[in-house]
Amino acid sequence: MADKKKDIRALTKEQLREFFVAQGDKAFRGNQVYEWLWGKGAHSFEDMTNVSKATREMLENHFVINHIKVDTMQRSSDGTVKNAVQLHDGLVVESVLIPTKSRTTACVSSQVGCSLDCRFCATARLKRMRNLNPDEIYDQVVAIDNESRLYHDRPLSNIVFMGMGEPLMNYNNVLKAIDKITDDEGLGMSPRRITVSTSGVPKMIRKMADDEVKFKLAVSLHSAIDEVRTSIMPFNATFPLADLRSALEYWYSKTKSRITYEYVVWKGINDKRKDVDALVQFCKFAPSKVNLIEYNPIDDGEFQQANSEAIDMYVKVLEANNITVTIRRSRGKDIDAACGQLANKS
Ligand code: SF4
């Protein structure tokens, strides 16, 4: 019987208002309940103290509130926090809090596992089980915001969709979650502090541009040479670089928003001058930023971080071509919370 009840947080505010009218109550009651669900993060109908007992019982008979549960929480020596989050059906995803001097960033998951097959990524080894619902994404952010306040005395400042899964393969739910995160009745965060990081799904990048989204876009590029990229990100054979580039040009023409590229330099894979030259050619059509990310081996040593000379070469050539470049040191390595390491090991 309990399974038949609908998750109340799948309803929009308007649908909640209509539900109450259909029950012979006032539409306003929908606003009140919505505020409890999203603004106050109520975990049960019992918590809704300004709603009558009869109404709470009626809600209980129709709906459930499927809150996530932080199953285990690990803290790294560098302040990074990793949550293993249990969903209502028992599946688990991970999310990470990354504190630096100037910001605290939540790295959240959008799918359980991933259907893509990037060879350097631990999540790719987990089968994609399902997409996360908007409320499951939202709850990860709330949990990390609470931990940020508790352990670092400040609220969350940024969010990146860079945890488990390809966010653009769960676009509608990611969009709905971001609506709640940015809504004044939700967390009220600025969309400019949210980055959706994709491995590059051209059709969906065009859709984001058409939808005039206000959040930022990052692309996990890792190589601007088709042959190399396909060897490490096999789906590149389906979405080759020319298609990705054309979608990004479209994105820029519509949004005028700078594009960030996530890029790991691996020994013997993309650490030569021709690799950085191809990167410059690929991204110079629009203002770009390249984040050179330190790699975290996931086990067998097939992928190894390139040496510092190769990184220096990237920095020098990119800067000479007026492309902003930053080197991202990895955080939370000791708890497998670093980039590409999320694999439900805890
Ligand atoms: S890097 Fe991202 S898109 Fe690629 S397999 Fe891992 S989670 Fe999926």
Please describe the structure with a list of short key phrases separated by commas or semicolons:
10-stranded mixed beta sheet; 18% strand; 10 helices; alpha/beta; two-stranded parallel sheet; 346 residues
Q: Biggest β-sheet, characterized?
A: 10 strands, mixed
Which small-molecule ligands are present, each listed once? iron/sulfur cluster
Morphology call: elongated
What is the β-strand count? Answer: 14
Descriptive report:
The chain has 346 residues and is of the alpha/beta class. The protein has helices at 13-22, 28-39, 53-62, 134-152, 171-182, 202-210, 226-232, 241-255, 273-283, 308-320, and strands spanning 6-7, 63-64, 69-75, 81-86, 92-99, 104-107, 111-112, 130-131, 158-161, 194-198, 216-220, 259-263, 288-293, 324-328. Helix 1 (13-22) packs across helix 2 (28-39). The longest helix has 19 residues, at 134-152. It is elongated. The mean pLDDT is 91. Bound molecules: iron/sulfur cluster (SF4). Iron/sulfur cluster is lined by residues 114, 116, 118, 121, 123-124, 164-166, 199, 220. The site of iron/sulfur cluster has 11 residues, from loops.
